[in-house]
## 1
Amino acid sequence: MKLREKLLQRAENYCTRNGITLSTLSSRLANDGKVLPSLKTGKDLTTGRYEAITSQLDGLERDEVPQ
């Protein structure tokens, strides 16, 4: 699995657990609602953007309340 596929999977799982859309999460993580959804069509990210998004997603996942 490619890095962008792993990121997309993590993001979609987070969205499902928290009842938000991928666009909403993308807006929160990248200030652009199109970044994460564009990964579905094979778009790429720069290394810096990938690192920034994964770092922020790490923080969000740590802050989730276990159910």
## 2
Amino acid sequence: MWALAFLASASGAWCGEVVIRLGSQLTARDGGWHLGEYVSIQGSRRDAMLAGAVWIHVRGDEIRREELVYLLSPLKGLGVSVRLEMPRRVRVISGAESLEARLARLSRWPWRVEVLGDPSGELELPLGFRDGYPFVYMRDRGQRRKVSLRWHQPVVLARDVMKRGDVVSWERVVLGLGEKRGFEELPSSVDEVLGRRVRTPVRAWAVLRGSWLEGSSGVLGGQTVELVCRVGGVSVSAVGRSVDGGRVGDRVRVMNVQTRAIVTGVVEAPGVVRVEGGDL
């Protein structure tokens, strides 16, 4: 096991230290994901959320130490001290057939649904199951047991205290990785909150909620949306789950819930994303 530490300060002060540990292999969904969805990060809640939001795009079937060091380097600007403990290469195994992946498909959730318990047995969904539900049932040998779930998602953090009437700007927010508890929709990208006024006081490093802000976003991250594609006089639509959030006119990424493909489109109206090129 190799250990690498690098330190940085912002305005001469530390936010704290996080310790990031990876073994020789890990199981994750295909494509890209946020570091904290699958990797152990120890530190204060705030610093772990900042480090956890780092986006990982796996090339091939491994993560190299030098690549991860580069991806973590922006944390220096936030004053976060990082200690990275990992081998030179970490093998990444596809989790496409796991119970977690199945729950994500059933709930149309674009991020990780972490199963906190023994996943063996036959899945039994509670009545009204959807994203944010705290548990599912597993049935094995005639016995039914409850298994808890954790719904990972990107969240927007306030970098300082915000007063009622303040306008949200780039300098005052940062993306972190948190979790959804219950059924409230949380903004999952900075674009969703920019330019909106705060309607209630917000403490520093709090997770911003849409209900705390005036106005509305065209699309919220993690929201079920209508994907629309128009070619000539023909219009085709599909059900999608937004990965990003944004206002009308913004470009966002959306997952087609049937094919699981990630496409990019423009927010045409609240809950509607237009995809160009004829490929949903």
